[in-house]
Amino acid sequence: MDEGDPDEALVARVGRGDPAAVRALMARKLPRLMSLAQRMLGDRAEAEDVVQETFLRAWRQAPGWKPGAARFDTWLHRVALNLCYDRLRRRREVPTDTPPERPDDGPAPDRGLEAQDVGRRVADAMRRLPDRQREAITLCHYQEMTNIEAAAVMGLSVEALESLLARGRRGLRAALADMAQP
Fold first, then answer.
1. Residue range 113-172, pLDDT digits in tens
2. Same-domain status, 118 and 90
3. Residue 152 belongs to what H/E stretch?
4. What span, in angstroms and rounded, lies between the C-alpha atoms of 116 and 102?
5. How many whole angstroms separate alpha carbon 74 and alpha carbon 155?
């Protein structure tokens, strides 16, 4: 990469067991990883579990981290995404005779604001996208990664990422077409 890894020194300190570095790395990475996992899984509790496991893996990896092949942030996002996909696969693989108890997905009596309804509709449309399209849109639009960074996290060429983004955006437009203003 043309610039060094901005996390390199911090990861080295984490690897040496520096508690201040651990806190600093968590403060730096936690909000984005939590947002990524929650958008991928649609469940805060599962997202918290994924982020916790991601950080455990980071702590184990930190003492032997060798900068160069990938930025630490890229590696960390890839770990989080892989853990999300593991959970999504398990959801599909668990047959059950009775549906799980779920809270009413309908709007609560005090949720009359249109913005909340739009947010829910967008989140539902995102959940219905194929996994790779949802991942591309989440990384680029919600995690604010550049196409180059997102492609690196996903292990794709920039062109392949842009194709996923275009298909994902088309899918979202189609799912939300009735919301378009005349």
1. 566 677 788 888 888 899 899 999 988 888 888 899 899 989 999 999 999 999 999 998
2. no
3. helix 147-154
4. 20
5. 10
Give the CATH number of the domain where residue 75 resides: 1.10.1740.10
Q: Residue 77 and residue 67: Cα distance in Å, rounded?
A: 16
| CA proximity to 142, closest of 156, 126, 161 | 126
Residue 24 covered by a domain: yes
Q: Give the gyration radius of the chain's Cα atoms.
A: 19
Q: Does 56 share its domain with 130?
A: no
- Domain count for the chain: 2
Model pTM greater than 0.70? no
Helix then strand then coil, % of the chain, to nearest 5: 70, 0, 30
Domain range enclosing 23: 1-94
Mean pLDDT of 58-73: 84
- Kindly give the residue spans of alpha helices, DSSP state H, lying in 19-113: 19-41, 44-61, 72-93
Cα distances from 19 to residues 8, 34, 55, 59, 174, in angstroms, run 16, 21, 14, 11, 48
